[in-house]
Amino acid sequence: MTAEQRDIGEDRTLLLVDDDESFLKRLAKAMEKRGFEVETAESVAAGRARAMARPPAFAVCDLRLGDGNGLDVVETIRERRPDARIVVLTGYGAIATAVAAVKIGATDYLSKPADATDIMQALLASDADLPPPPENPMSADRVRWEHIQRVYELCDRNVSETARRLNMHRRTLQRILAKRSPK
To answer: 112-142 burial by CB neighbour count: b if 16+ within 10 A, else e?
Structure first.
């Protein structure tokens, strides 16, 4: 038994809820290697059904899912198992959603991209532990570029709609999209 597996405890059940199928499979495999008994769900409905049937000791929920808000799954888990440790993942990090997630019962809130190590640390951190600062944080240019790419994808790669939502001139947006991503 590894040190990580001892830290998990007796109940190693983990529910992963995310609508990104490839990310979900990769994360499930990585968490199984770390000693968890993983169940997955790709929607709010499936996540709530699994949480009702077998409330997990640990959970990782995406905030925005195809059929609703991942916070609904968090609420269901919290009702069925108050001691569960729940991490909310999102590509749309904002203070308001982080506060809402913690108020509903999430243990932690991580912005994507988060790797299995970050998620494991968040799941197993004691309440008194403060997370360490990132060793290699994204530059401001990279954060801006990531946000623009996310909005562009949400707008189904429609440049005019993306520019309107970002309050940016369309040609400026086209120039940004044509460049390589900053480091």
So the answer is: bebebebbbbbbbeeeeeeeeeeeeeeeeee
3-124 and 140-178 in the same fold: no
| Nearby residues of 38 by Cβ (< 8 Å), 6 or more positions away | 14, 15, 16, 28, 31, 32
Section 28-35 average pLDDT: 89
Instruction: Please report, for the chain, the start and end positions of each structural domain, with discontinuous segments joined by +.
Output: 3-124, 140-178
Pairwise CA distance, residues 39 & 94, whole Å: 28
Between residues 175 and 140, the one the model is more confident about? 175
Angle between helices 116-124 and 21-33 (to 10 degrees): 60
Task: Name the CATH superfamily housing domain 3-124.
Answer: Response regulator (3.40.50.2300)
- Residue 158: the pLDDT is 93
- In contact, 15 and 28? CB cutoff 8 Å: no
Single pTM value for the model: 0.66
